Amino acid sequence: MTDTTTNQAPRNQWWDVWDQFKTHKGALLGAGFFVFMLLFVYLGPYVWGIDPGHIDPRVRNQGMSFAHPMGTDQLGRDMFARMMAGGQISIAVGLTAMLLSLVLGTFIGVLAGYFKRIDGLLMRFTDLFLALPLLPLLLVIVMLYRDPLRAAFGPETGIFILIVFVIGITSWMQTARIVRGDVLALKEREFVLAARSIGTPPHRMILRHLLPNVMSPIMVSATLGIANAIITESALSFLGLGFPSDFPTWGRLLFDGTDWLQRNPERVIWPGLAISLTVLSVNYIGDGLRDALDPRIRGR
Protein backbone atom coordinates (compact mmCIF):
# COMPACT_ATOMS: atom_id res chain seq x y z
CA MET A 1 0.00 0.00 0.00
CA THR A 2 1.54 3.30 -1.13
CA ASP A 3 1.68 6.40 1.01
CA THR A 4 -0.39 9.01 -0.83
CA THR A 5 0.82 11.88 1.36
CA THR A 6 4.33 11.64 -0.05
CA ASN A 7 3.03 11.92 -3.63
CA GLN A 8 1.02 15.08 -3.10
CA ALA A 9 2.37 18.30 -4.58
CA PRO A 10 3.49 20.89 -2.02
CA ARG A 11 0.82 23.37 -1.07
CA ASN A 12 1.11 26.68 -2.88
CA GLN A 13 2.08 29.59 -0.64
CA TRP A 14 -0.67 31.76 -2.13
CA TRP A 15 -3.31 29.36 -0.83
CA ASP A 16 -1.96 30.02 2.68
CA VAL A 17 -2.14 33.74 1.98
CA TRP A 18 -5.76 33.39 0.82
CA ASP A 19 -6.69 31.31 3.87
CA GLN A 20 -5.30 34.01 6.15
CA PHE A 21 -6.91 36.80 4.10
CA LYS A 22 -10.32 35.14 4.44
CA THR A 23 -10.13 35.39 8.23
CA HIS A 24 -10.03 39.20 8.00
CA LYS A 25 -13.71 40.11 7.69
CA GLY A 26 -13.03 43.76 6.99
CA ALA A 27 -10.67 42.86 4.15
CA LEU A 28 -13.26 40.55 2.59
CA LEU A 29 -15.93 43.27 2.79
CA GLY A 30 -13.50 45.79 1.37
CA ALA A 31 -12.53 43.51 -1.51
CA GLY A 32 -16.18 42.79 -2.26
CA PHE A 33 -17.10 46.49 -2.29
CA PHE A 34 -14.10 47.41 -4.44
CA VAL A 35 -15.01 44.73 -7.00
CA PHE A 36 -18.61 46.01 -6.94
CA MET A 37 -17.38 49.57 -7.54
CA LEU A 38 -15.23 48.42 -10.47
CA LEU A 39 -18.23 46.65 -12.02
CA PHE A 40 -20.41 49.70 -11.35
CA VAL A 41 -18.15 52.24 -13.06
CA TYR A 42 -16.84 50.11 -15.95
CA LEU A 43 -19.79 47.85 -16.80
CA GLY A 44 -22.60 50.03 -15.50
CA PRO A 45 -22.60 52.45 -18.48
CA TYR A 46 -23.33 49.56 -20.85
CA VAL A 47 -26.42 48.70 -18.79
CA TRP A 48 -27.62 52.22 -18.01
CA GLY A 49 -27.07 53.60 -21.50
CA ILE A 50 -27.54 57.33 -20.76
CA ASP A 51 -24.80 59.64 -22.01
CA PRO A 52 -23.25 61.44 -19.00
CA GLY A 53 -22.76 64.55 -21.14
CA HIS A 54 -26.33 64.69 -22.50
CA ILE A 55 -27.97 68.03 -21.58
CA ASP A 56 -31.73 68.21 -21.06
CA PRO A 57 -32.80 71.64 -19.72
CA ARG A 58 -36.31 70.34 -19.01
CA VAL A 59 -35.11 68.22 -16.08
CA ARG A 60 -32.60 70.57 -14.45
CA ASN A 61 -31.89 70.18 -10.72
CA GLN A 62 -34.36 67.34 -10.24
CA GLY A 63 -34.22 65.10 -7.21
CA MET A 64 -33.98 61.33 -7.13
CA SER A 65 -36.51 59.48 -9.30
CA PHE A 66 -36.86 56.24 -11.28
CA ALA A 67 -35.72 58.03 -14.43
CA HIS A 68 -32.74 59.60 -12.63
CA PRO A 69 -31.86 57.58 -9.48
CA MET A 70 -29.33 60.18 -8.30
CA GLY A 71 -31.09 63.23 -9.71
CA THR A 72 -29.82 65.68 -12.31
CA ASP A 73 -27.46 68.66 -12.25
CA GLN A 74 -28.02 72.30 -13.19
CA LEU A 75 -27.79 71.45 -16.90
CA GLY A 76 -30.09 68.44 -16.76
CA ARG A 77 -27.33 65.83 -17.00
CA ASP A 78 -28.01 62.49 -15.32
CA MET A 79 -26.00 62.20 -12.09
CA PHE A 80 -26.14 58.40 -12.09
CA ALA A 81 -24.37 58.28 -15.47
CA ARG A 82 -21.91 60.99 -14.36
CA MET A 83 -21.07 59.04 -11.21
CA MET A 84 -20.13 56.06 -13.37
CA ALA A 85 -18.05 58.19 -15.73
CA GLY A 86 -16.42 60.00 -12.82
CA GLY A 87 -15.55 56.73 -11.12
CA GLN A 88 -13.79 55.49 -14.25
CA ILE A 89 -11.47 58.50 -14.21
CA SER A 90 -10.90 58.57 -10.44
CA ILE A 91 -10.08 54.84 -10.21
CA ALA A 92 -7.94 54.98 -13.37
CA VAL A 93 -5.97 57.89 -11.88
CA GLY A 94 -5.59 55.95 -8.62
CA LEU A 95 -4.32 52.78 -10.30
CA THR A 96 -1.96 54.53 -12.73
CA ALA A 97 -0.49 56.90 -10.16
CA MET A 98 -0.05 53.98 -7.76
CA LEU A 99 1.92 52.04 -10.39
CA LEU A 100 4.16 55.04 -11.06
CA SER A 101 4.88 55.67 -7.38
CA LEU A 102 5.41 51.93 -6.79
CA VAL A 103 7.94 51.61 -9.61
CA LEU A 104 9.80 54.73 -8.52
CA GLY A 105 9.76 53.85 -4.82
CA THR A 106 10.82 50.24 -5.40
CA PHE A 107 13.64 51.30 -7.73
CA ILE A 108 15.06 53.82 -5.28
CA GLY A 109 14.53 51.54 -2.27
CA VAL A 110 16.31 48.57 -3.86
CA LEU A 111 19.24 50.70 -5.02
CA ALA A 112 19.59 52.35 -1.63
CA GLY A 113 19.43 49.06 0.24
CA TYR A 114 21.78 47.09 -2.01
CA PHE A 115 24.43 49.65 -2.92
CA LYS A 116 25.91 51.12 0.25
CA ARG A 117 27.77 53.87 -1.63
CA ILE A 118 24.59 55.61 -2.81
CA ASP A 119 22.42 54.74 0.20
CA GLY A 120 23.04 58.03 1.98
CA LEU A 121 22.47 60.13 -1.14
CA LEU A 122 19.21 58.41 -2.06
CA MET A 123 17.86 58.54 1.50
CA ARG A 124 18.64 62.25 1.81
CA PHE A 125 16.83 62.72 -1.52
CA THR A 126 13.87 60.82 -0.05
CA ASP A 127 13.98 62.96 3.10
CA LEU A 128 13.91 66.07 0.92
CA PHE A 129 10.68 64.95 -0.73
CA LEU A 130 9.19 64.01 2.64
CA ALA A 131 9.96 67.50 3.96
CA LEU A 132 8.26 69.29 1.06
CA PRO A 133 4.73 70.65 1.66
CA LEU A 134 2.86 68.42 -0.76
CA LEU A 135 -0.35 70.37 -1.35
CA PRO A 136 1.37 73.69 -2.26
CA LEU A 137 3.82 71.72 -4.43
CA LEU A 138 0.95 69.99 -6.23
CA LEU A 139 -0.81 73.29 -6.83
CA VAL A 140 2.33 74.94 -8.22
CA ILE A 141 3.11 72.04 -10.60
CA VAL A 142 -0.48 71.89 -11.85
CA MET A 143 -0.61 75.64 -12.43
CA LEU A 144 2.73 75.66 -14.30
CA TYR A 145 2.24 72.67 -16.60
CA ARG A 146 -1.53 72.44 -17.05
CA ASP A 147 -1.81 74.63 -20.15
CA PRO A 148 1.27 73.25 -22.02
CA LEU A 149 0.09 69.66 -21.53
CA ARG A 150 -3.45 70.55 -22.57
CA ALA A 151 -2.09 72.08 -25.76
CA ALA A 152 0.14 69.07 -26.46
CA PHE A 153 -2.19 66.16 -25.64
CA GLY A 154 -5.69 67.65 -25.46
CA PRO A 155 -7.68 68.86 -22.43
CA GLU A 156 -8.56 65.44 -21.03
CA THR A 157 -5.40 63.43 -21.81
CA GLY A 158 -3.10 66.28 -20.84
CA ILE A 159 -4.71 66.74 -17.42
CA PHE A 160 -4.75 62.96 -16.87
CA ILE A 161 -1.00 62.71 -17.58
CA LEU A 162 -0.27 65.73 -15.39
CA ILE A 163 -2.29 64.54 -12.38
CA VAL A 164 -0.93 60.98 -12.58
CA PHE A 165 2.63 62.30 -12.82
CA VAL A 166 2.16 64.79 -9.98
CA ILE A 167 0.63 62.22 -7.63
CA GLY A 168 3.18 59.56 -8.58
CA ILE A 169 6.28 61.69 -7.94
CA THR A 170 4.96 62.89 -4.56
CA SER A 171 3.90 59.55 -3.06
CA TRP A 172 6.81 57.13 -3.60
CA MET A 173 8.80 57.92 -0.45
CA GLN A 174 7.12 55.51 1.98
CA THR A 175 7.52 52.62 -0.47
CA ALA A 176 11.20 53.45 -0.91
CA ARG A 177 11.85 53.41 2.84
CA ILE A 178 10.00 50.13 3.38
CA VAL A 179 11.75 48.39 0.46
CA ARG A 180 15.16 49.68 1.55
CA GLY A 181 14.69 48.28 5.05
CA ASP A 182 13.71 44.86 3.73
CA VAL A 183 16.61 44.77 1.28
CA LEU A 184 19.07 45.65 4.05
CA ALA A 185 17.79 42.68 6.05
CA LEU A 186 17.79 40.32 3.06
CA LYS A 187 21.41 41.18 2.18
CA GLU A 188 22.55 39.31 5.30
CA ARG A 189 20.53 36.15 4.59
CA GLU A 190 22.33 32.93 3.71
CA PHE A 191 20.89 32.52 0.20
CA VAL A 192 22.01 36.04 -0.77
CA LEU A 193 25.50 35.49 0.63
CA ALA A 194 25.70 32.17 -1.21
CA ALA A 195 24.61 33.76 -4.50
CA ARG A 196 27.16 36.52 -4.04
CA SER A 197 29.93 34.01 -3.30
CA ILE A 198 29.49 32.36 -6.71
CA GLY A 199 29.80 35.70 -8.50
CA THR A 200 26.15 36.55 -9.22
CA PRO A 201 26.08 40.03 -10.83
CA PRO A 202 24.15 42.79 -9.01
CA HIS A 203 21.33 43.08 -11.55
CA ARG A 204 20.67 39.34 -11.41
CA MET A 205 20.87 39.38 -7.61
CA ILE A 206 18.26 42.13 -7.45
CA LEU A 207 15.87 40.63 -10.01
CA ARG A 208 16.11 36.96 -8.98
CA HIS A 209 16.74 37.06 -5.23
CA LEU A 210 15.79 40.40 -3.70
CA LEU A 211 12.71 41.65 -5.57
CA PRO A 212 10.67 38.42 -5.18
CA ASN A 213 11.26 38.58 -1.42
CA VAL A 214 10.09 42.18 -1.02
CA MET A 215 6.82 41.70 -2.91
CA SER A 216 4.80 41.52 0.31
CA PRO A 217 5.41 45.12 1.45
CA ILE A 218 5.17 46.29 -2.17
CA MET A 219 1.68 44.81 -2.51
CA VAL A 220 0.55 46.41 0.73
CA SER A 221 1.97 49.76 -0.39
CA ALA A 222 0.11 49.34 -3.68
CA THR A 223 -3.29 49.12 -2.02
CA LEU A 224 -2.60 52.11 0.19
CA GLY A 225 -1.22 54.02 -2.80
CA ILE A 226 -4.51 53.63 -4.67
CA ALA A 227 -6.39 55.20 -1.76
CA ASN A 228 -3.91 58.06 -1.48
CA ALA A 229 -4.06 58.77 -5.21
CA ILE A 230 -7.88 58.84 -5.27
CA ILE A 231 -7.96 61.28 -2.34
CA THR A 232 -5.30 63.52 -3.90
CA GLU A 233 -7.05 63.64 -7.27
CA SER A 234 -10.34 64.41 -5.54
CA ALA A 235 -8.72 67.22 -3.58
CA LEU A 236 -7.22 68.77 -6.72
CA SER A 237 -10.53 68.48 -8.59
CA PHE A 238 -12.41 69.91 -5.60
CA LEU A 239 -10.07 72.93 -5.68
CA GLY A 240 -10.90 73.39 -9.37
CA LEU A 241 -7.41 72.42 -10.59
CA GLY A 242 -8.21 68.97 -11.92
CA PHE A 243 -10.17 67.86 -14.93
CA PRO A 244 -12.46 70.29 -16.82
CA SER A 245 -16.08 70.57 -15.73
CA ASP A 246 -17.38 68.61 -18.73
CA PHE A 247 -15.04 65.71 -17.86
CA PRO A 248 -16.42 64.44 -14.55
CA THR A 249 -14.49 62.85 -11.70
CA TRP A 250 -15.80 62.24 -8.22
CA GLY A 251 -13.83 65.21 -6.93
CA ARG A 252 -15.14 67.43 -9.72
CA LEU A 253 -18.73 66.33 -9.05
CA LEU A 254 -18.20 67.17 -5.38
CA PHE A 255 -16.86 70.61 -6.34
CA ASP A 256 -19.77 71.29 -8.72
CA GLY A 257 -22.33 70.18 -6.12
CA THR A 258 -21.21 72.57 -3.36
CA ASP A 259 -23.09 75.49 -4.98
CA TRP A 260 -26.31 73.45 -4.76
CA LEU A 261 -25.76 71.99 -1.31
CA GLN A 262 -28.89 73.44 0.31
CA ARG A 263 -31.24 72.76 -2.59
CA ASN A 264 -29.89 69.36 -3.72
CA PRO A 265 -27.68 67.90 -0.95
CA GLU A 266 -27.56 64.51 -2.67
CA ARG A 267 -25.28 66.02 -5.34
CA VAL A 268 -22.58 66.24 -2.66
CA ILE A 269 -23.55 63.10 -0.75
CA TRP A 270 -23.19 60.63 -3.63
CA PRO A 271 -19.65 61.52 -4.79
CA GLY A 272 -18.55 61.99 -1.17
CA LEU A 273 -19.82 58.52 -0.27
CA ALA A 274 -18.17 57.00 -3.34
CA ILE A 275 -14.79 58.52 -2.45
CA SER A 276 -15.02 57.63 1.24
CA LEU A 277 -16.23 54.06 0.82
CA THR A 278 -13.79 53.26 -2.00
CA VAL A 279 -10.83 54.58 0.00
CA LEU A 280 -12.04 52.74 3.11
CA SER A 281 -12.41 49.47 1.19
CA VAL A 282 -8.91 49.77 -0.27
CA ASN A 283 -7.47 50.46 3.19
CA TYR A 284 -9.17 47.34 4.55
CA ILE A 285 -7.75 45.31 1.66
CA GLY A 286 -4.30 46.64 2.57
CA ASP A 287 -4.77 45.61 6.21
CA GLY A 288 -5.83 42.12 5.17
CA LEU A 289 -2.89 41.73 2.78
CA ARG A 290 -0.46 42.93 5.43
CA ASP A 291 -1.66 40.24 7.84
CA ALA A 292 -1.91 37.53 5.18
CA LEU A 293 1.56 38.16 3.77
CA ASP A 294 3.25 38.20 7.18
CA PRO A 295 4.57 34.66 7.84
CA ARG A 296 4.57 35.34 11.60
CA ILE A 297 0.79 35.83 11.55
CA ARG A 298 -0.17 33.38 8.79
CA GLY A 299 -1.44 30.11 10.16
CA ARG A 300 -2.59 31.37 13.55
Task: Please tell me about this protein's structure.
The chain is mostly helical and 300 residues long. It contains 13 helices and no strands. Helix 4 (79-114) runs antiparallel to helix 5 (116-131). The radius of gyration is 23 Å and the shape is globular. The chain starts with 12 loop residues before the first helix and ends in an 8-residue tail after the last helix. Mean pLDDT is 83; it is low at 1-6.
Mean pLDDT: 83
Q: What's the SSE pattern?
A: HHHHHHHHHHHHH
The tally of helices reads: 13
Shape category: globular
Structural class: mainly alpha
* Oligomeric nature of the chains: single chain
Largest sheet: none
Number of beta-strand segments: 0
Runs in which pLDDT lies below 50 for 5 or more consecutive residues are: 1-6
Determine the strand fraction and express it as a percent band: under 5%
The percentage helix is over 70%
Radius of gyration: 23 Å
In angstroms, what separates the terminal alpha carbons? 34 Å
